[in-house]
Amino acid sequence: ATPTALLVGTGRGAQLGVLIKGPEVLESTRKVDTIVLDKTGTVTTGRMSLVHVVPADGTGADEALRLAATLENASEHPIAAAIAAGATDLDMVLGTVTHFANTPGRGVTGCVEGRRVLAGRASWLAGEGLAVPPELASAVDEAEAAGRTAVTVGWDGSARAVLVVSDTLKPTSAQAISQFRKLGLTPILLTGDNTRAAQAVAAPLKITDVIAEVLPEEKVAVITRLQGEGRVVAMVGDGVNDAAALAQADLGLSMGTGTDAAIEASDLTLVRGDLRSAADAIRLARRTLSTIK
Length: 293
Ligand code: ADP
Ligand code: MG
Fold this sequence. Notes:
Helices cover 41% and strands 24% of the residues.
């Protein structure tokens, strides 16, 4: 992603690893009292890894992984990268996918080896008419209880396996969040992922406000609701699904490591994808607003 064409960096901001769209951004930067943080790719590395595969009775784990990985190869989601890497690490040869379609916040589908394969939330597969056998429902439950993300894969009318992926906190997230608190900001974790995976990320950061299982199109409404409570809201995100919420927030911050859509929708870009530079930028704005105006 190349944010530079769009953005005007102020000298000091650039030094801090922050690109600011224009001087008017500093006013809202100074006033924010709430900071909404997207989970995957913002607070966590977004480099997920495949932990294990739980096949349904009668399904081969390898076949399920190969079909899912072939399908996910066409997706840009961090979950997709984990699944594709998990397969290639096992020297699997991935085929081609046709009729690929992404349903944001739910999953992906496409035609692989003559089958219509789906991978995503179990509830989404069920809504698409696939039966979810009890051993897979428990695998989903177990993975989520452990703070992980479960991707259910299925074809021919039935869910066939659960692929368990996990994400890790960025080493800088804890520091950044304690700096936000020192600046008087209330941190809120916002994610499309399951509640328990969200809490597993929030707990070590001592974040108590967690809004999980939010569909991409609902993220904007969360920001609007917080603004309705009289809060001045900063939102930090990296994904295509964060763009509308970033635009709605009083201050939208994107990760320089994130998608172009997020960068374009934001007021300020954290060049290195380091959340601590958001705290630095807010501190800088509060300190120097008068000298810049
Ligand atoms: P976040 O808000 O954390 O960035 P998303 O809104 O992108 O999360 O995704 C929410 C959920 O939708 C994921 O946790 C996953 O269950 C499902 N999902 C989204 N994209 C995919 C995909 N490419 N493959 C499998 N599952 C997906
Ligand atoms: Mg994200």
